[in-house]
Every structure is written in structure tokens, then in C-alpha cells.
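Section 3.1: Structural characterization of target chains.
Under the original work plan, the team committed to producing a structural model for every single-chain target entering the pipeline before any wet-lab resources were allocated. The record below documents one such target. The sequence was received from the expression subgroup and is listed exactly as submitted; it comprises 170 residues.
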Amino acid sequence: MSWLGAVPAWCWWLIALVLVAGGQQYRVVVAQVGTAEARTELADYRLVVAENNRRVAAQARAEEKRRQKVADEEGESARKKLELAKSRAADAESAADGLRGEIARLRDGHRATCHAIAAQQRQAGTSAVVVLGGLLEEADRMAGDLATALERSRIAGVACEGVVDRMKVP
């Protein structure tokens, strides 16, 4: 009989159980170490992602502020130009009113002269001076309205182009 036979069978089972339990315990420890390393890497990754998100958000906010500032500056510039155009239009309208008054005065003078000079030479309708005066007055009024609308449109277009040009990323 060998020394192996001297060890009872239950001892062999106990030795096998201790070896298997030890192997399993070793696997658990290795898995716990791997899990701890993975958790550390995940925490580091989350920190990196959070920092990148913060940085990108800060850049987006800065770009948004820059664009808003550009739009505000262009808007203010356009408002000033519109105010200047309105004052110029008011000056032009005042001058046009003066011209219209002069045309009316000339027309009235022409009518009086026509009545005094030759009633027979006058036609049944209004004379050419009166018609031309009326046409000139209406054309002047329309030109002023169109000039005002054109100036507003031009200022708005220039302001819009300025905003778009300045919002391009340098």
C-alpha cells in the first residue's frame, strides 16, 4: 500500500474542494481587479467627455454671443441709416411741397392770364401748362415715395448682407 491509500477518501474530496474553491476565489479576485480597473477607466472617460462637453458648450456660447453682437451692431447701424433716410425724405418732402406750391401758384397765374387775354383761345379743357403742372406734381410725389421705399430696402439689404458676412467664422 502506498501512502496515497493511507489518506482517507473524504480527505481527497476535501483537498479537491479546497483546490476548486481556491481557484474560484482567485478568479473572483482577478474579476474584481478587472472591474475596479474598468470603473477607473470609465470614470476617467466620463471626466474627459464632461470636460469636452463643457468646452464645446463654452465655444458655442461664445460663438452665439459673437453672432448676436454682430446682429445687434448691424441692426443699430441700419436703424441709424433709416433715421437719416427718414430725415432726408422729410427734407425732400418739404422741398417738394415748396415746388408744388410754386406749381400751383404758376397754374393759378396762368389761369388768370388766360381769362384776361383770350377766352376764345382757351380750349374747353385745361391748358397744357395746367396738365403738365399736375403731371409734374404727381410724378414728384411718386418719385419721393419710391425713393423712400428704395432707400429703406437698400438699407435693409445692406444690413442683412453685413450680418451674414460678419457671422462667417474667421
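The longest helix spans residues 9-117.
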